[in-house]
Amino acid sequence: DRQTKIAPSILSADFANFGAECRALEAQGADWIHVDVMDGHFVPNITFGPQLVKAIRPHVKTVMDVHLMIAPVDPYIEAFAEAGADILTAHVEAGPHVHRTLQAIRAAGMKAGVALNPGTPAEAVAPLLDDVDLVLAMTVNPGFGGQKFIEATLPKIARLREMIGDREVHLQVDGGVDAASAPKVVAAGADVLVAGSAVFRGGSVEQAGVYGENIGAI
Ligand code: DX5
Ligand code: ZN
């Protein structure tokens, strides 16, 4: 049995009130807090870095799930570990030595995730599955919140679940997850749903409709 987890993305939070926003998400039952780090180079937007993770860490006990949309990754791994990140996810497209990066993330004491853009085939992560704790299938092109869910990613999610097999590896989806797309990604095999605009537009985790009776345990 896999229990679906919800990881609200603070990309859609009030940037002047991160502490309060994170406490509210925890109170609403967020399983993880998803932190989108963007560098204006790997993706066409800039957000925040390890200092923000360090600043929000004392406000919540929630798992701190950090999604790096940066290149290179390796020079920043230690800083995210020190800041209190629990899971650090790097993109398979972010550099030529992703396997080394994943090893370095684990060596720094964090769980390691590997992310794939919508245009990257599932097979790109096949050689990495024994060295990760999480696979993140992007369901929009990374860079911005509030984009439309790309339906064509659904077969890839199913393929990734099949490839993961009986490994203890989470399959996370990120982008355009709302009450309409959440049941589809869960049916395809996802067990961790990132939701930014759906949570903050709805006013709460529950009202986003990506949790609770809409999904439940599968
Ligand atoms: C997009 C980010 C997402 C983003 C999702 O590049 O990785 O985590 O916050 O936002 P929504 O749920 O609004 O698509
Ligand atoms: Zn993300």
Overview of the molecule:
There is one protein chain. With 218 residues, the protein is α/β, with parallel strands linked by helices. It has a single domain, classed as Alpha-Beta Barrel (TIM Barrel). It is 27% helix and 20% strand. It has seven helices and eight strands; from the N terminus they run E-H-E-H-E-H-E-H-E-E-H-E-H-E-H. The protein has an eight-stranded parallel β-sheet with strand order 1-8-7-6-5-4-3-2. The site of zinc ion has 6 residues, from strand 2.
**Residues in helix, %:** 25-40%
Per the CATH scheme, the topology name is: TIM Barrel
Strand numbers in spatial order across the main sheet: 1-8-7-6-5-4-3-2
What structural class do the secondary elements suggest? alpha/beta
Based on CA atoms alone, the radius of gyration comes out at 16 Å
User: Given this structure, which CATH class is correct?
Assistant: Alpha Beta
Distance between the termini: 6 Å
Bound molecules: D-xylitol-5-phosphate, zinc ion
Question: Could you tell me the mean pLDDT?
Answer: 94
Report the strand count: 8
Largest sheet: 8 strands, parallel
Secondary-structure element series: EHEHEHEHEEHEHEH
What's the overall geometry? globular
Which CATH architecture? Alpha-Beta Barrel
Please indicate the count of domains: 1
CATH evolutionary superfamily? Aldolase class I
Low-pLDDT sequence parts: none
